[in-house]
Amino acid sequence: MKQKGSYINRARWYVYAILAVGILIIALPFYLTVITPFKTSSEILGNFFSFPKSFYLGNFMKVLSKPDYYYAIGNSIIITGIAVAIMSILLPMLAYPLSRGMREKRIFKVIYFIIVCGIFVPFQVRMLPLMKLVNALGLMNIPGIIVLYVATSVCEGTYLYVGYMASMPTSMEEAAYIDGASTNKTFWMIVYPLLRPITATVLIKNSLWIWNDFFMPLLVLNRSYKLHTITLFQHSFKTAYTTDYTLAFTTFLMSILPIMLVYIFAQKHIISGLTNGAVKG
């Protein structure tokens, strides 16, 4: 028994050590992101990891004085807001017939698995033909990237919605059909309100992704600084030879605070949506 207890204690210390390393890996970049905007360039050159001697606010004033910043923050808000609003309508509409139809017709199950297979195709594989298509259609602009984000979210979003709907009882829908309600009315009046947890999950996950995405805006919105998002604005502080770390980290902090607050207040919806959707598949 003593030998078994020593193994358990040793394993517990290994787990604690791994967790401590993980916390350090996460906390160090966050620490640098928070303290660097309040330091001058000379302080960064002296010691990059030191705490600021005085909370210098000049970096924030420099960022706010740039007209490009307001274009970038406005574009990010527009793209994120419109894209997730469209997702909240289209994804449930796609998932509902698949979820209910799979029980009766095999074709719905085939369509569902084809859509889910798209999750395993990396964006880098689709990038070249997708950019050629978008360019040919004249969608190298803000409406075009919104369409791209919505289309890219279909695979994972459908998977989450179908899994969640599989855990929902159909008794209320059947009662509505008996009372003479159409499929459209049943969906919007009964099913859609019950999808709030998974809808919150999908919207928050995609909001975090779209707000922080760099690669797709770089490919689609690189023609003018007026089309830039906040991530492209941050990238502008890096040149071929130097990087203005004070302004770059200032924009990092200014961009993560809004989306971080949204995530903190809505994380319970993410957890409930994912766990409820995992009951049945």
Task: Report on this structure.
The protein is mainly alpha-helical. It has 14 helices and no strands. α4 (67-101) packs parallel to α7. It starts with a helix and ends with a helix.
CATH H-level homologous superfamily name of the largest domain: MetI-like
User: What oligomeric arrangement do these chains adopt?
Assistant: single chain
What is the radius of gyration?
24 Å
Quantity of strands, as a count: 0
Number of domains: 2
Distance from N terminus to C terminus (CA atoms, Å) equals: 42 Å
Q: Helical stretch count?
A: 14
Spell the H/E element sequence. Answer: HHHHHHHHHHHHHH
Uncertain regions spanning at least 5 consecutive residues: 277-281
| Average pLDDT reading | 84
Question: Helix and strand layout, with pairings?
Answer:
Layout: H1 2-35, H2 41-46, H3 58-64, H4 67-101, H5 106-117, H6 123-136, H7 142-152, H8 154-166, H9 171-178, H10 183-194, H11 196-212, H12 215-220, H13 230-235, H14 245-277
Helix pairs in contact: 3-14, 4-5, 4-7, 4-8, 4-11, 5-8, 8-14, 9-10, 11-14
What keywords describe this structure?
single chain; 281 residues; mainly alpha; MetI-like fold; 2 domains; 14 helices; disordered C terminus
In brief:
With 281 residues, this protein is mostly helical. Helix content is 76%, strand content 0%. α3 crosses α14 (245-277), α8 runs parallel beside α14 and α9 (171-178) runs antiparallel to α10 (183-194).
